[in-house]
Design a protein that fits this description.
Layout: E1 2-4, E2 10-12, H1 23-34, H2 39-45, E3 55-59, E4 63-69, E5 78-83, E6 86-93, E7 114-121, E8 132-136, E9 139-145
Antiparallel strand pairs: 1-2, 3-4, 4-9, 5-6, 6-7, 8-9
Length: 160
């Protein structure tokens, strides 16, 4: 059996020059790489330690909204600051059990714990006095209203 080459010819399996992967294999490798650099992957690789919340940043005409998934964290354990053009979210996710827990056997632990800090660059001038935050069901929402000069202005132009 041989390998299929781009030109439609086949080659013995010990000669790999000019080999291409059919589309299903291309998408398989793309899908593998899409999830490679997630916070959980970084933790397993040792590049970071502990819990790193996932974030969403949304822009509307009048504001930015940042959503952070903070499961298992009390709102009192979250610290928010806005400096220059950067929102900083800090906190800590505590373990629910002690390492010295002798009453049970842990077979494995996959959840992440520890201190975290996420910084988000906000690409427009913000009304600092009107920044607000809410925390519901483990999701932090931070609303950052744009300064009037940063809001999108639409001017209708008449065509003659």
């Amino acid at each position: 059996m041989g390998l299929l080459l781009r030109n439609g010819k086949s080659r013995p399996t010990n000669d790999l020059s000019g080999v291409f992967l059919p589309r299903p294999f291309d998408s398989l490798f793309d899908n593998l790489m899409d999830g490679f650099f997630t916070p959980a992957t970084y933790e397993r690789s040792g590049l970071t330690h502990g819990f790193q919340p996932t974030l969403d940043l949304r822009e509307t005409e009048k504001e930015f909204e940042v959503y952070a998934d903070l499961p298992g964290i009390d709102e009192k354990d979250v610290d928010l600051t806005f400096t220059d053009d950067t929102l900083i979210i800090k906190g800590e996710r505590q373990k629910e059990h002690k390492e010295t827990d002798k009453e049970s056997n842990w077979y494995f632990e996959q959840r992440s714990f520890g201190q975290f800090e996420r910084t988000i660059h906000i690409p427009a001038e913000i009304q600092r006095d009107n920044i607000s935050a809410s925390f519901k069901n483990g999701v932090l929402k931070v609303t950052l209203p744009k300064a009037p000069e940063a809001q999108t202005r639409v001017q209708k132009i008449k065509v003659n």
